[in-house]
Design goal:
663 residues; ABC transporter involved in vitamin B12 uptake, BtuC; two-stranded antiparallel sheet; globular; transmembrane
């Protein structure tokens, strides 16, 4: 571990001692609700077969605690390998679509071929994880496994798998509670089979990672220097990704999805003072193990008290997110990530494509108004019948276009200010804040009706924005810290949302459909309000074009050119937050356009900030309008959420472009 200032030398040791002591105290407290402490040793070695309490302690409580330690260590190591390999602080097992692949595989089997469950859930989850990894690596191979290509391929693959999973869940709502319970990560055990399988697997993978510690350490250098030192970047990155995928697959197959640990554990290890990879290789798994053990003990206490039965995987944010939020202001500022260059301006700006995009948008809006699908199949609406369908179709098309334009613009602002291809509106935590407000209102049952739920959602969104900006203020609104704050806050708020969905509440499908992006409730009053905000915010975003051209050059160059770095960061982040808030309140947290719209604008050749803003506006609106048409017609008279259809439309194109074009 790198040396630290004298006054801070013992702080990391103290922090880990406190965390470890907290985990042990909570676990012991939880065990006392199941068996008196004097009987623990006897129940561990020789449980009495005529004592149900000792049997439960031996075959359920002890294996559960050991499984928590092993699962947390495995995910902490997986997150560390991904962040080191991709040189991205936002990387986690979710980044490469590994968890999404396992969830999709299990969902498909459960819905379409339940007979395959005889193979075992671990086998199915492992197959989905490895297929997702193979797909990502195939897409990134043309780019020589560059970190940017791997991040983009993994994220779009994860979003695509997630979109398919949600669509299947919405069409098979009788399985929603079961799938969300598994997706929440349950550590409940009834024998020693899970820890017996996890221990050798995670141990062997840890040894392999330790043997490759020096090549992984050199990945922290830029690509030119690493190659000059003889590091085979493609081979080392492939090894890191494969190890992370295997760790994620092993853990997910046995306990389900345990969120946030893969992101938080490496960051907490770094914030505790571990600067070198070898030090983080020890501390990241330890952090993950202690986090999951402590959270699982809290979950057990809540369950024993009859308060709530919450999946452990969802509840990991209860301890990890506040801890990360507390440590973030203490993070030393770092240099811009290596992805910065790829997001900067280029030599040629193909602005002639903007009129083409505008024409396509006009055609899409016309199609949204005139194309329908009924008992006789697809048909065009006759002019005489247009007045009958206009009140239903026009508001939907308008709200979809406005939301898509604002989310794509917000994503562009975030990606330019941070230089991070993972940056997207949902990363700020605003969409999760809105969903949290609505879910909490439904759980409490104090508000009814669309207007009341909308007000509750708006309150949650603005509270999330306030917290993110307050924490970011201490770091001078450093983009990576703001994004990590948003992710931590999202994970914390997700506890309530996942619990609500997993507990089988009959209103859960309504929340799930709204979170997937629904235009079903659009009307002209909502359109007018959203359009008024868009008319103010989109031109204001365009007015920031000079700052957006300079910011990707890095803080040193920006200051040399006279740019007020802290002020510009705050202005850009605030603008992205406002755009996201309005769009999410209009249609729900659509988790595709804000990420992919800016990338698609760059892929068609738009380089300058002003042209990328206009291109993102047009692409976001175009994709959402087309998605709205397909959402209401593909399985008529039933509907799919517009956001899910948008993902199913746009993500294959983005995946194809990432795999086709060298960086």
């Amino acid at each position: 571990m790198a040396a630290m200032p004298g006054s801070d030398t013992y702080r990391p040791l103290l922090a880990y001692a406190v965390l470890g002591l907290l985990a042990l105290i909570l676990t012991g407290w939880c065990w006392t609700t199941q068996l008196p402490a004097p009987q623990w040793w006897g129940a561990l070695l020789h449980p009495r077969l005529d004592d149900p309490q000792q049997l439960v302690f031996h075959f359920a409580a002890l294996p559960r605690a050991l499984t928590a330690l092993l699962a947390g260590a495995g995910l902490g190591l997986a997150g560390l390998l991904l962040q080191q390999t991709l040189r991205n602080p936002l990387a986690s097992p979710t980044t490469l679509g590994l968890e999404a692949g396992s969830q999709l595989a299990l969902t498909v089997v459960l819905v379409a071929a339940p007979g395959l469950l005889m193979l075992g859930r671990p086998v199915i989850a492992l197959a989905g994880t490895l297929l997702a990894l193979g797909f990502v690596m195939a897409c990134a191979a043309r780019n020589r496994f560059s970190s940017v290509a791997l991040v983009l391929a993994g994220l779009v693959a994860g979003l695509f798998c997630g979109a398919l999973t949600i669509a299947l869940r919405l069409l098979n709502q009788e399985f929603v509670a079961i799938l969300f319970l598994w997706g929440g990560g349950s550590l409940a055990q009834q024998d020693w089979s899970a820890p017996a399988a996890l221990a050798p697997s995670i141990g062997a993978l840890y040894l392999l990672a330790a043997l490759l510690a020096r090549p992984f350490e050199l990945l922290a250098l830029d690509e030119e220097n690493a190659r000059a030192l003889g590091v085979p970047l493609g081979l080392v990155r492939s090894a890191g990704l494969l190890l992370a995928a295997l760790l994620t697959a092993v853990v997910t197959a046995h306990v389900g999805v345990i969120g946030f640990v893969g992101l938080a554990a490496p960051q907490i290890a770094r914030l505790a003072g571990a600067r070198r990879f070898a030090a983080r290789l020890l501390l990241a798994p330890l952090t993950g193990a202690l986090l999951v053990l402590a959270v699982d003990a809290i979950v057990g206490l809540l369950e024993a008290a009859g308060i709530i039965d919450l999946p452990t995987g969802a509840a990991t944010a209860l301890l990890g997110a506040p801890l990360l939020l507390w440590l973030l202001p203490r993070l030393r500022r770092s240099e811009p990530p290596s992805t910065q260059r790829s997001l900067a301006t280029g030599a040629r700006d193909r602005t002639r494509l903007l009129p083409v995009l505008a024409a396509l948008l006009v055609l899409a809006v016309a199609g949204a108004l005139l194309i329908g699908h009924g008992s006789l199949g697809w048909r065009l609406i006759a002019p005489a019948d247009f007045a009958l369908v206009e009140p239903w179709r026009a508001p939907r098309a308008a709200i979809a276009a406005l939301a898509g334009a604002m989310l794509a613009t917000a994503g562009l602002l975030l990606q330019r200010v941070s230089g991070n291809p993972l940056a997207a509106p949902e990363v700020l935590g605003i969409g999760t804040g809105v969903a949290f407000g609505m879910a909490l209102a439904m759980i409490l049952g104090q508000t009814t009706g669309l207007a009341a739920h909308t007000a509750a959602g708006a309150s949650g969104g603005f509270l999330a924005l306030f917290l993110v900006l307050m924490v970011g203020r201490r770091s001078g609104f450093a983009p990576d810290q703001v994004l990590l704050t948003g992710l931590a806050l999202s994970a914390l708020l997700d506890v309530v949302i996942v619990a609500f969905l997993a507990l089988g509440d009959p209103r859960a499908p309504q929340v799930l459909a709204w979170m997937a992006g629904s235009t079903y409730y659009a009307d002209w009053s909502k359109v007018v309000t959203t359009a008024a905000f868009a008319a103010l915010l989109l031109p204001a975003a365009l007015a920031l074009r000079r700052w957006l051209d300079i910011v990707p050059m890095g803080p040193v160059t920006a200051r040399a050119l006279g740019l007020p770095v802290q002020t510009s960061r705050l202005a850009i982040l605030a603008m992205a937050s406002l755009l996201t808030s309005v769009a999410v309140m209009a249609t729900g947290p659509l988790t595709f356009v804000g990420l992919a719209g800016p990338h698609m604008a760059r892929l068609i050749g738009l380089r300058r900030a002003w042209s990328q803003i206009l291109g993102s506006v047009l692409i976001g609106a175009l994709v959402m309008v087309v998605a709205d048409v397909l959402a209401r017609t593909l399985i008529a008279p039933r509907e799919l959420p517009t956001g899910i259809v948008a993902a199913l439309i746009g993500l294959p194109y983005l995946i194809w472009q990432v795999g086709r074009r060298p960086q």
